[in-house]
Amino acid sequence: MSQPQPHTDRTGGRVPARLRYRRGLCAAMVALLAGMLVFSLVTDGSAFTHTAWIVGLFLWLLLWGALRSLTRAVAERPAEVLDERERATRNRVGFIGYQFAVGSGMAVVLMLVAFQNDEAVLDRAPGVLTTLMLAAASLPTVILGWAPPDDELDDGED
Fold it and tell me: Please, what is the Cα angle at 12 between 26 and 16, to 5 degrees?
């Protein structure tokens, strides 16, 4: 069995450089948010008082801004100028982000109820909630950034 060549997809087709760049940013965003969440859960006291979490927040802003500029064609155009597929994609990822935000908020509420007498958990909750809301805010952009653009989808249709 031969190994796939670098910069090719599962079918052997070449992956464009701009898609590799966007997917790299998406992977970096996911890794950063996972690290921030773990840090918020294990740190002593509030994550807001630790330099590492604040640096993570600034890195999140940079990554989110870069991804947002790369997905602007679908994410920020008025619905009237989007075609049906673009509108459906934007609505779908927005709903996924909403579901993630609600689920994350409920997880934090359950954590607070279950550990209401534990001072350390109460100190960590704001950092955990903030990190999860950052993840919810960026999830639609990450999904749009990972998906191939419509023009690359159209190239395969004959």
Answer: 40
Residue pointed to by tokens 């673009």: 86
Each residue of 98-150: pLDDT tens digit? 999 999 999 999 999 999 999 888 888 999 999 999 999 999 999 988 887 65
Burial class for 29, CB neighbours closer than 10 Å (0-12, 13-18, 19+): buried
Other CB atoms within a 10 A radius of the CB of residue 42 amount to: 9
Measured between alpha carbons, how far is residue 10 from residues 3, 21, 153 in Å? 10, 18, 15
- Rounded to two decimals, the pTM is 0.80
